[in-house]
């Protein structure tokens, strides 16, 4: 499961950081594991992802998945993001995951989709 | 006292002879979550289903009488195991969680009012926090938490300070499921009684590992689970002082807990059945009886002494792993638990990589989120030990942790 690429991405994540300003941002945690991921997205005039960053903490699987996902979605339209499936992301990760670890791998996609669908940002709600 | 031989004990547990991941002998270091079961317990439960499966208490036929005798016999032996003065004070429930909820609903709803204080500690398991929060919310009561020190010990001066005339109930784990800290139960109970409050002990971790004597502790209630002490899942115990249990209203209503039911009202059965509505886990109760026999034959003193040895061995061995931080006090003050973090690796990744070596530990917050929040860590890894844990198991854990460091390029 811990092939070199996963560890590489854990050590040197892609698209890590924040975007100010961004068109939308969203964060969610998985309180059971303590994983947390926030995604910032900028969209161009054609509704395509112009830029994306993410920040967070968590296990190697959740962190590598966020790197791979954010790299993969650049240039995609918001409709394409809505159609982006769990299988697409798992295929990108390319590792066999047990039932309990799949939710680590999918946290970044859950956060991205919630942002695309315009969920109110939980942090904003808390303010 | 001769130290017990874990290598011999292991032969009583069929699952420990199993291999995981093809050729790796299982190293089971997750007994604080649930213990493995000896053959004697598995056979006692099978024996019930094979030979005398029948409902208990009211059947006027041979099988029902055998089942009732076995089930009530288990209750008597469990009562002896914790030195309860009377088996009627031993109520079968599903687990520690249900036992604590029973106290909160049945005793709490009658006796807790607005402004009253319920005193817990910051090292509690969620099951000894949430029922009291629900009760406090309903009644306008206040839940307070005794902090723990940097060493993972209960802050006793703070405990005495928080204990006031507003305190109506103190509920605490006599052993922490993360730190392993063994709390001074007698001292806490005595101080609680001195101000006229009730003392509840969450014995989920202590009853499986230490000699427990409810009359010596003088606690008002003791809650524990069967599955952490070599027994089956689905059965636990609430011990309560007789006078309190007599006064408390029933928790769940239904069959078995009534004396007489009429359309305009009902009267309740005697203890302990007043609190045991519906068909209970019969095989589970019998299984827990067999578990108590198994542990008693070895002796809880011997089990505790062995666990002190193996915990000391483990803490020593773990201290050799670079970047490790073991939570809680040293071996002298704790039971068989070592929760830890390793700089640069998330606990889930630690656990996943150890699993590849056949080593089962736990990773997460272990149902103790407030404890982890206070330490500012999202989670921890936890290895926990029991009477069947060998020094070889610990060595395999340490070898595995050093491999984790290599995979994560920390060396």
General description of the model:
The complex is a heterodimer of chains A (127) and B (411). Chain A is an alpha+beta fold and 127 residues long. Chain A has one domain (4-118): Sufe protein. Chain: A (Alpha-Beta Complex), CATH 3.90.1010. Chain A has helices at residues 4-11, 60-73, 78-83, 86-93, 99-116, 122-126; strands spanning 24-30, 35-43, 49-57. Chain B has two domains: 6-30 and 299-407, Aspartate Aminotransferase, domain 1, CATH 3.90.1150.10; 42-296, Aspartate Aminotransferase, domain 2 (3-Layer(aba) Sandwich), CATH 3.40.640. Chain B starts with 5 loop residues before the first helix and ends with a helix. The chains are: A alpha+beta (127), B alpha/beta (411). At the A-B interface, helix 1 of A face helix 12 of B.
Condensed summary:
The complex is a heterodimer of chains A (about 130) and B (about 400). Chain A has about 130 residues and is of the alpha+beta class.
